[in-house]
Amino acid sequence: MEDLNTEDKIVNAAEAEFIERGYSGARMQAIADKAGINKALLHYYFRSKEKLFEVIFKLAIKMLIPKFIGIITSPETDFFDKIRYFVKEYITVVMKNPHIPGFIIHELNSNNSSLINVISDLNLNLSPVYKMIQEEIDEGRIKPIRPENLILNIVSMSIFPIEASPIIKAIFFKGNQKQYLELIEQRKEEVAEFIINSIRIK
Amino acid sequence: MEDLNTEDKIVNAAEAEFIERGYSGARMQAIADKAGINKALLHYYFRSKEKLFEVIFKLAIKMLIPKFIGIITSPETDFFDKIRYFVKEYITVVMKNPHIPGFIIHELNSNNSSLINVISDLNLNLSPVYKMIQEEIDEGRIKPIRPENLILNIVSMSIFPIEASPIIKAIFFKGNQKQYLELIEQRKEEVAEFIINSIRIK
DNA sequence: GTCTATAAGGTGATAGAC
DNA sequence: GTCTATCACCTTATAGAC
Asked: How far is A102 from chain B (nearest CA, A)?
């Protein structure tokens, strides 16, 4: 961390602060402290809290959303293996950034501005994924399902239990962290089987 | 709204403000304005922003979490009908309060305090649900599955697509609200069938 | 590029009249 | 119970020395 240039130190510190506390809860002083520099330097590099936030928000989006396409167009040839691979990798990625989904959702819901454009600007093309699913249906390998619903189901089951970890932990395990981690580890396999069981045609 | 007493007017206004902007983003002035009263009155009734927030947070929790148990112990006798009933009702409830899941999760993640106790204090007893699931497994009507995983899958697929609506809307429908609402309406039936297809033993 | 000092405005909270 | 006026503090942002 110490051998980073100042700009990168700021970005790292801001990432931690914004993602933990959200835009309105984040403090420029806290970011400066975490980066080990002076508050005035933040404005020298990024001009305002808002500008700095935008940089971090884009970073957060890029950490989770495009990965989604990247993993789905994986080397696996079998459709069910693709699902297995996706679920395992995506849960792993989200577990490394557990606060990012909640951060993105909260900012999109509370911020009246044009943050949503950050997502549109990704120009995510789902056509190959839709096509892949439709092919499986047409060739009688999986039951008919609207592609959007299949994707949503997979993503929901992968993200939500991690995003909502404090609640899950409290309700299922009285706050026990170890039991929670075991559950998520298990889900890397079981969620995929749950999905495959649902759509497979015997 | 005008014929409510002052305290209720404040609670309603605070609910809207806190759930939309979160604790740190909410403004006491905005709450007073929405309630049509003076800022000083907020402190007369609730002493501080923090106290008022606690009231709202507890309200938000009660709107979503216990409902979960209430619906599951529904009058339906058939297990699959229970699932159908739960998914339909829960998606409907969440759609009426679409910002609450994100609000709860954000506050639990960013607030270092003891908000989590609000959930523990509910003393949610899942044993009847676990037992119900285990019975279905023992009697060979559904495939073996860890009850926690089944519950998590159902809840994830019911909540996440609503909680993350701005992203879903943007990615799937270029922001089109009507198409999004149709999708969610459809999911009230389809999510249940997706689950039942996965666990049913033919 | 990096710092200290300070400006400028906002925010929760209270005092005190009615 | 409800209001106006005001305090005390915090936060972003900038000026200016080095």
From this structure: 6
Tell me the pLDDT tens digit for each residue of A135-183: 999 999 999 999 999 999 999 999 999 999 999 999 999 999 999 999 9
Task: Tell me the shortest Cα–Cα distance from A155 to chain B, in angstroms.
Answer: 9
Output the six-digit token pair for A50: 């808002």
Binned at pLDDT 50, 70 and 90, residue B76 comes out as confident
A74 contact B CB<8A: no
Residue A101 CA distance to nucleotide C13 C1' (Å): 35
CB B167 within 8 A of CB A106: no
Tokens 């609207």 belong to residue: A146
What is the C-alpha separation between A64 and A94, in angstroms, rounded?
7
Spatial distance from the CA of B181 to the C1' of D17 (Å):
60
pTM, entire model: 0.97
In which residue ranges of chain A is pLDDT below 70?
1-2, 113
Cβ neighbours of residue B37 under 8 Å, at least 6 residues apart? Answer: B6, B9, B10
At A176, phi and psi to the nearest 5? Answer: -70, 115
Query: Which B residues in the span 109-128 are in contact with A, Cβ-Cβ below 8 Å?
Result: 109-110, 116, 119-120, 124, 126
Residue B102 and residue A104: Cβ atoms within 8 Å? no
Which residue in B43, B13, B44 sits closest to B30, CA to CA?
A: B13
Backbone angles phi, psi at A200, to 5 degrees: -65, 140
Does the CB of B29 fall within 7 Å of any strand C atom?
yes
Distance from the Cα of B146 to chain A's closest Cα (Å) equals: 10
- Which amino acid is located at A181 in the chain? L
